[in-house]
Design brief:
By secondary structure, the protein is α+β, with helices and mostly antiparallel strands. The chain contains 7 helices and 25 strands. The strands form 6 sheets. Strands 1-11-10-6-7 form a 5-stranded antiparallel β-sheet, with no helix packed on it. Helix 5 packs antiparallel against helix 6.
């Protein structure tokens, strides 16, 4: 089954909601059901940046939405047409205000390639659509229709179009990559390291700073304190290593300070470049200090979260990752033995020897493939294989049934030998960017859990 990473780059001026409903009153799928559906549907990603229209636009009171969409080739169907392979899909845009349609647009796209292997890769097909609209709050619906397979997927955004004509204001941001001297949009968190990538670039526009006094711009990348792999004997995932999801971003990784001398222009472009940081979740903040009037300073602040993953994502890319996920199916004495190995080489040899005794290379590959799928499905404030839903999925597989219990609770049901076994999850945190579903203590059957582990340990 083809799949890809699902991660979102959300800034405080943009709220993203995913669902299949046609109105806000439509019942939304359970969190995990919606995640599972993404593996089979033509899932695309989108980002809205709100900017001031060009100064040449006749109606200067309008605001501007730039809507970027991105879909991986391995999420759409290609068919052979002569010497090349061609896909055919339609993107539909509806911009609504107060439940009334303001503007709509539909475009047809037909990407082509001569290489079949390229159709199976996560090569991204980008598209940009611009809308000039009145200021206000809007609901933007975007639907993709794969015209070959007939499959559809829809995303909904709530976004605000601001009036940039009076007070000093910052636009929301656009992330780009600097590669071989060229800039390319990276408007989402779908960021992977590549050998030819030089830096990441964060772009914003600053409007209506009328003073000619110098402007101070401070941009920061912050991270949480790194968590070390627990050496405890217990494999309990009631309190997983991903408890870091609730910790503050209190460590500054990179910080840029610079002074800008304004001109008479009312539009100032702010561009900061960053060395590609290590793999984890980051908090980005930019502060702009300017002269509001004589002897009075004011500060504009924008911030948001991003996940940056290496080029191997969603596969486990480090020895520590492999140790973490394998710990879920080890006995205590085995974990003690593995932890006692002093070098990385000794630890790798220990893992190789263990898998040779428990199903060999085929079962090992199946297990780590399951961990890869957990990353694709459940990565949010931490890698999916570290989060409780990901752990249950890795060890026990797809549930037979999923039931929503209010807005913050889910129940997974597994059926074995005509018996029902349940895992109850509860959402912790209110911020969608840092919350996660934790397993409720004592809400699962230990016998079923041991049975699931034993299936991986069989020779």
């Amino acid at each position: 089954m083809k799949s890809r990473r699902i991660i979102f780059f959300l800034f405080n001026s943009l709220f993203l909601f995913i669902g299949c409903g046609t109105t806000e009153k439509t019942i939304v799928d359970c969190y995990s059901i919606e995640r599972f559906k993404r593996l089979s549907l033509p899932k695309f990603e989108a980002h809205v940046i709100n900017l001031k229209p060009s100064d040449t636009l006749q109606n200067s009171q309008l605001s501007r939405f730039d809507i970027y969409t991105q879909i991986a080739w391995n999420k759409i169907r290609f068919i052979k047409q002569g010497d090349f392979f061609e896909a055919n899909y339609t993107l539909s845009f509806n911009v609504n205000k107060n439940d009334s349609l303001v503007v709509s647009k539909e475009i047809n796209l037909q990407p082509r390639t001569f290489n079949y292997e390229a159709t199976q890769l996560s090569i991204n097909d980008f598209n940009l659509q611009t809308f000039h609209i009145d200021s206000g709050k809007y609901k933007i619906q975007i639907q993709i229709t794969d015209n070959i397979s007939g499959l559809k997927y829809r995303t909904q955004f709530l976004a605000e179009a601001r009036n940039f004509n009076s007070t000093a204001t910052l636009s929301n941001g656009l992330l780009l990559e600097a590669s071989n001297g060229k800039l390319k949009p990276l408007f989402l968190n779908d960021i992977r390291f590549r050998a030819d990538r030089d830096t990441l670039v964060y772009y914003q526009e600053l409007y209506n700073v009328n003073s000619l006094d110098p402007i101070k711009v401070v941009s920061e990348f912050k991270v949480r304190q790194p968590m070390k792999l627990s050496s405890e004997k217990s494999r309990s995932f009631y309190y997983p290593d991903s408890a870091a999801c609730g910790l503050p971003f209190d460590t500054t990784l990179q910080k840029h300070e610079r002074i800008i001398t304004p001109t008479s222009e009312k539009r100032i472009q702010l561009i900061d470049t960053f060395i590609v940081p290590l793999q984890q979740q980051y908090y980005f903040q930019r502060s702009v200090v300017y002269s509001k009037s004589k002897n009075i300073k004011d500060t504009l602040i924008t911030s948001g979260l991003m996940n940056i993953n290496n080029n191997y994502f969603p596969q486990l890319s480090s020895l520590e990752d492999s140790l973490t996920v394998t710990k879920y199916i080890l006995f205590n004495y085995e974990w003690d033995s593995l932890s006692a190995q002093k070098t990385n080489s000794e630890k790798r040899n220990w893992l190789t020897s263990w898998w040779q005794k428990h199903g060999g290379i085929s079962k090992k590959n199946e297990f780590y493939e399951r961990a890869k799928d957990a990353n694709l499905l459940f990565t949010s404030c931490d890698a999916g294989f570290r989060l409780p839903m990901g752990v249950v999925f890795i060890v026990s597989g797809y549930p037979n049934n999923i039931e929503c219990q209010g807005l913050n609770n889910e129940m997974w049901q597994y059926i074995l030998n005509n018996q029902n076994f349940y895992f109850n999850f509860r959402k912790y945190g209110t911020d969608e960017k840092t919350s996660f579903y934790n397993l409720q203590p004592f809400s699962m059957d230990e016998n079923f859990w041991r049975y699931s582990i034993e299936q991986w340990r069989k020779k």
